[in-house]
Amino acid sequence: MKFNVVVVGSTGLVGQRLVSMLSKHQWFNLIGITASKDKANKKYKDVVKWSLENKMPENVEEMIVYDTNIENINNLKPDIVFTSLPTDISKDFDIQLVKQGYVVISHASNNRMDKDVPLLNPEVNADHINVLKLQANRWKGRLIKVPNCATSILTLALKPIYDNFGLRHVFVSTMQALSGAGINGVSSMAILDNIIPYIEHEEEKIENESLKILGELSNESIKPNESFYVSASVHRVNVLEGHLESVFLKTDNDVSVEEIKKSLIEFKENKIKNLNLPTKPSQPIIVRNEIDRPQPRLDRNEGNGMSIVVGRIRKDNRNWIKFNVLGHNTIRGAAGNGVLIGELVAKNYNDIIQ
Ligand SMILES: NC(=O)c1ccc[n+]([C@@H]2O[C@H](COP(=O)([O-])OP(=O)(O)OC[C@H]3O[C@@H](n4cnc5c(N)ncnc54)[C@H](OP(=O)(O)O)[C@@H]3O)[C@@H](O)[C@H]2O)c1
């Protein structure tokens, strides 16, 4: 059986990736796409500013874009709705959807820290999907959130280190791509010959969401991790795609660079290992040994954009571990993760909607 899906916010950067991945997906039928009123009732190819490296899929070129409203979704009756809207619009629309009974996978930052809302990075915390049962107390439908882009990349790198050696402190300084700011993004006058050391609310998202994702599921609720903390400093840089993050961390006990490297390479993503999810990369974490990698332009498309690349793993003279991690922000950090979550939902659909 194939699941009928709709992409809400299909003309944005995340929406275009979702459309591209879902239009040819073996488990999903893309039955509808939406955007703002201005673009509604026109052909997708005539209103979208296509920004991906691949050609627009032929089967979506002629699709008519719907206005983003609940009546249109009710007419389509999808099994799963993927939303990729600005947060101020998403915070109302996601709730309208779940009140109506839809299963929603949402990319915006609203509701990410709610106790009964799973914030999923499937290789890391697929078991958190079990908190969805608690949502029966407030909605007919179910809301699942995709984490902040820099956080998805960071937590995938931290997971094997935390599991094997424990964590006390994590400091991260990010160099985030322009595409992270959406299709209208940052003006060229602001970013050419420049770095902007500020992205609104981004540091709090990385610091709080990481602890939720690496938290424990107990008594059907998620207990954020209290054994370590994360402190973040963020920067917007003149790169199109791919967030590079410089990480400094202290483990519970001192470990060698070789032990850290081995734990990353051997990470087994136990939580979803046997599910055969089509979007899961065969190697979620790739370790490079060259002294000047990873680099956004060279490494962001590893594993079709779903693998993260870790390099420059080293130690300072106080036994802090340092490394760089790179991930494709609109794929691993957004739409690719959203589709992977969709596949996890598809595998558990009947349990989820009970
Ligand atoms: N970009 C990333 O790397 C990334 C990563 C993780 C999470 N996110 C989150 O994902 C969401 C989407 O991000 P994005 O980068 O794709 O943004 P974007 O490029 O600005 O796209 C926004 C989408 O929302 C639609 N939209 C805007 N205002 C609307 C309204 N009033 N009514 C209905 N639709 C409206 C737009 O339609 P029109 O074309 O008609 O305006 C467009 O389809 C955001 O919440 C963002 O924070 C983004």
UniProtKB/TrEMBL annotation:
Species in which this protein is naturally found: Caldisphaera lagunensis (strain DSM 15908 / JCM 11604 / ANMR 0165 / IC-154)
Active site: C149, H243
PANTHER family referenced in this protein's UniProt entry, alphabetically: ASPARTATE-SEMIALDEHYDE DEHYDROGENASE
Domain of life: Archaea
Molecular functions (GO terms): aspartate-semialdehyde dehydrogenase activity; NAD binding; NADP binding; protein dimerization activity
Protein name, as recorded: Aspartate-semialdehyde dehydrogenase
Family that this chain belongs to: Belongs to the aspartate-semialdehyde dehydrogenase family.
Keywords, ordered alphabetically: Amino-acid biosynthesis, Diaminopimelate biosynthesis, Lysine biosynthesis, Methionine biosynthesis, NADP, Oxidoreductase, Threonine biosynthesis
